[in-house]
Design brief:
It is globular and about 55 Å long. It is α/β, with parallel strands linked by helices. It contains six helices and nine strands; from the N terminus they run E-H-E-E-E-E-E-H-H-E-H-E-H-E-H. Strand 4 and strand 5 (about 65-75) form a beta hairpin. The chain has a single domain (about 10-205), classed as Rossmann fold (3-Layer(aba) Sandwich), CATH 3.40.50.450. About 30% of the residues are buried.
Length: about 200
């Protein structure tokens, strides 16, 4: 794909309990369906890997039927190109071979760490959507939330939580002090509608 428009990226965050993970997967599909052709893509951290060369950075997303989508960057806010490729061996080998053939660059063989991946994705993304659907999770989404705040990305965060899910006073103080965008939702149908609306108004406007 050449001559790309100004693509916007959305990073989907939340607990990976079975219910919330199902929601995140479905929300990703909802975004693709509602914003097809509008230069908007969404990612979940666990579905992508990040690879670096001296010249390029690559977000590699496994798709279906033995394929992957490669998002090629010159730096985190300059998308160079997007390619759908067939997997040849593991994902790292596929990315390595493709970049060597297409760009003549040598990729680091090892994928980047989770924190390096998260930091790059936050910088590249225009919006971070963090979903808190239930109280009885391990709280991994709070780690993601606080890391985003401490890294200076509070203005990118939309924190969506189901009505009735309680937050501690300390967390509320952090959210208020950092001016994190917060929005409640009633049920899953309401959540999907809220996300489509805020992306339409806040990201693509």
């Amino acid at each position: 794909m050449a001559n790309l428009g100004p693509m916007a990226f959305v990073l989907l965050l939340g607990s990976y309990d079975s219910q919330t993970k199902k929601y995140l997967d479905d929300i990703k599909g909802t975004i693709e369906m509602n914003f097809s052709g509008e230069y908007l893509s969404s990612f979940m951290l666990e579905d992508v890997e990040l690879y670096f060369s001296e010249q390029l950075q690559v977000i590699a997303e496994l798709t279906h039927n033995g394929k992957a989508t490669l998002f090629i960057f010159r730096h985190p806010q300059e998308l160079e190109d997007v390619f759908d490729v067939d997997l040849k061996g593991d994902l790292g080998d596929t990315v390595y071979d493709f970049l060597k053939k297409k760009y003549g660059v040598t990729l680091k063989r090892d994928k980047e760490s989770v924190l390096q991946k998260f930091d790059f994705m936050m910088l590249a993304a225009k919006t971070l959507l963090l979903i808190r659907d239930r109280e009885e999770t391990r709280g991994g989404e709070y780690v993601e939330l606080m890391h985003a705040i401490f890294k200076g990305y509070a203005d990118k965060v939309w924190f969506l939580r189901r009505d009735g899910v309680r937050l501690s006073s300390m967390l509320m103080e952090y959210l208020d002090k950092s001016k994190v965008n917060m929005r409640p939702y009633i049920d899953y149908s309401d959540l999907k509608g809220e996300i489509v609306r805020l992306l339409r108004c806040s990201v693509l406007s």
